[in-house]
């Protein structure tokens, strides 16, 4: 086959999709419990939304976006993340007129032109929670608690919450000067990207994944020492809230996250089980994002979790074994007339809410039983010519191997009783 899926893009195959749905189901239930309502945002947006919202000098905007011109000459971009779109939707549909905060849940694929590797793809899935319209530090705590609860509900252990505050633009200005001063005589030790970042967006150096840059960053001044009184207070209240709920966290003064829109709180949940791509989810507060994309000031806080990485951890920890369920019934039939009866019965069973399938290959009994096994059927209905002539079918329980004869007219009530 010459045509394969593009690089970094995967098919989620049967067998895997069940795992996807399992995680999505847990997230959806949590959204209900925490009162975050589902929103479905467009797959592409005006490029400007992301370049203004996420920031021109970020990796995402400068080199990871799938941007194209449509037939009307507009510049459009496949969404690389959900927050900017959700804030856009909030503004566009006047959610500021409703009681605040307004809370949203979203689940869907994102697109980034990155170097594909384990846990890093060009199309990947995110679960996203956003709370808009309140600067209350307890809302930051709620969002972190929700992210933690998501991992807990999935059964994932060996996790760490890292938090930081990167302050407001005022705090950032002072910090940037101090950081530049610290890095000035170490420039030649930084990677090429970071040398560029030194000029364009020095905070981004803290987010570099290279070991050599990281070791330099370790001795850098801490942004938390540069917070203004308001931002400092806000951060103190976030930490108090986390303590109130007994949520374990580690302070990481170098956690800035890959998007420019963050203000004050940033956080990540890290898994010890993943290698370099160890962030299961990340988020924070973005009080200026709505304003940056042309709206009014709407404070907000949220996070996104990567589905591929969550599934990787679940697999590694053996937490997904039962997700691939078989069907209730597989009907095996021998002969033309029996096949017709099987087909009719199949339709009745399905309409009855019983998951069922039958053989379409006309193979012999043994071969059909093998298919039933592969489909993990709980019971097999066997309709042969002999059985049919006396109006009976055999029902075999695949677990115990026990076999019973039931009259064709009683099959439905028999299976109804069994399904209860
Ligand atoms: P990273 O630091 O790993 O590049 P990021 O800071 O770019 O992540 P966000 O944009 O905040 O991540 O996205 C939130 C989550 O989405 C990440 O924690 C991760 O689980 C997942 N994620 C991000 N990029 C990818 C990707 N290319 N492939 C798979 N999952 C991803
Ligand atoms: Mg990234």
Short description:
With 420 residues, the chain is α+β, with helices and mostly antiparallel strands.
**Sheet/helix structural class:** alpha+beta
The profile of the biggest β sheet is: 8 strands, mixed
- Provide mean pLDDT, rounded: 94
In terms of DSSP E residues, the strand content is 15-25%
> Uncertain runs with pLDDT below 50, 5 residues or more?
none
| Amount of helix | 25-40%
Please tell me the total number of domains: 2
Predict the CATH topology of the largest domain: BirA Bifunctional Protein, domain 2
Distance, first to last CA: 47 Å
At CATH level 2, the architecture of the largest domain is 2-Layer Sandwich
Hetero compounds: adenosine-5'-triphosphate, magnesium ion
| Count of DSSP-assigned helices | 15
The CATH superfamily label of the largest domain reads Bira Bifunctional Protein, Domain 2
C-alpha Rg (nearest Å): 28 Å
- Please report the first level of CATH classification, the CATH class of the largest domain: Alpha Beta
* Shape label: elongated
Number of strands: 16
Strand order of the largest sheet: 1-5-6-11-10-9-7-8
Q: Topology, pairings included?
A:
Elements: H1 17-33, E1 37-38, E2 44-46, H2 47-53, H3 59-64, E3 67-69, E4 75-78, H4 83-92, E5 102-111, E6 123-132, H5 137-154, E7 159-165, H6 169-183, H7 192-200, H8 211-217, H9 229-244, E8 250-251, E9 265-271, E10 279-285, H10 289-292, E11 300-306, H11 307-316, E12 329-333, H12 336-351, E13 356-358, H13 365-374, E14 379-383, H14 385-389, E15 392-397, E16 403-407, H15 411-419
Parallel strand pairs: 1-5, 7-8, 12-13, 12-14
Antiparallel strand pairs: 2-4, 3-4, 5-6, 6-11, 7-9, 9-10, 10-11, 14-15, 15-16
Helix pairs in contact: 1-5, 5-9
This protein binds adenosine-5'-triphosphate and magnesium ion.
Adenosine-5'-triphosphate (ATP) is lined by residues 81, 112, 114, 119-121, 124, 126, 257-258, 277, 279-282, 304-306, 308-309.
């Amino acid at each position: 086959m010459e045509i394969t899926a593009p690089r970094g893009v995967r098919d989620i195959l049967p067998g895997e999709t069940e795992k996807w749905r399992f995680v999505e189901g847990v997230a959806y239930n949590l959204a209900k419990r925490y009162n975050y309502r589902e929103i479905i945002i467009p797959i592409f947006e005006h490029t400007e939304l992301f370049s203004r919202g996420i920031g021109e000098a970020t990796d995402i905007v400068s080199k990871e976006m799938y941007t194209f011109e449509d037939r009307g000459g507009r510049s459009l971009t496949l969404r690389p993340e959900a927050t900017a779109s959700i804030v856009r939707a909030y503004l566009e549909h006047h959610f500021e007129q409703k009681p605040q905060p307004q809370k949203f849940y979203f689940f869907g694929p994102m697109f980034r032109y990155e170097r594909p590797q384990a846990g890093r793809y060009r199309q990947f899935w995110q679960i996203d929670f956003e709370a808009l319209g309140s600067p209350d530090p307890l809302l930051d705590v709620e969002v972190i608690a929700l992210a933690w609860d998501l991992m807990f509900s999935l059964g994932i252990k060996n996790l760490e919450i890292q938090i930081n505050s990167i302050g407001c633009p005022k705090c950032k200005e002072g910090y940037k000067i101090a950081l530049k001063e610290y890095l000035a005589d170490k420039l030649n030790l930084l990677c090429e990207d970071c040398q560029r970042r030194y000029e364009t967006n020095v905070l981004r150096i803290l987010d570099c994944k290279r070991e050599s840059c990281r070791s330099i960053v370790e001795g850098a001044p801490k942004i938390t020492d540069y917070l203004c009184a308001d931002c400092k207070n806000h951060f103190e209240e976030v930490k108090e809230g986390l303590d109130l709920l007994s949520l374990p966290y580690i302070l990481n003064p170098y956690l800035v996250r890959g998007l420019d829109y963050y203000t004050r709180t940033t956080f990540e949940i890290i898994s010890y089980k993943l290698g370099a791509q160890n962030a299961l989810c990340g988020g924070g507060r973005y009080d200026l994002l709505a304003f940056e994309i042309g709206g009014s000031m709407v404070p907000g806080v949220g996070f996104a979790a990567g589905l591929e990485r969550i599934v990787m951890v679940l697999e590694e920890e053996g937490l997904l074994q039962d997700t691939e369920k078989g069907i209730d019934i597989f009907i095996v039939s021998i002969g033309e007339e029996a096949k017709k009866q099987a087909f009719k019965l199949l339709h009745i069973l399905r309409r009855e809410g019983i998951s069922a399938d039958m053989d379409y290959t006309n193979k012999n009994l043994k071969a059909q039983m093998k298919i039933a096994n592969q489909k993990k059927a709980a019971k097999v209905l066997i309709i042969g010519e002999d059985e049919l002539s006396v109006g009976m079918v055999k029902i075999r329980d695949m677990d115990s191997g026990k076999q019973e004869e039931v009259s064709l007219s009683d099959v439905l009530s028999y299976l109804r009783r069994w399904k209860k």
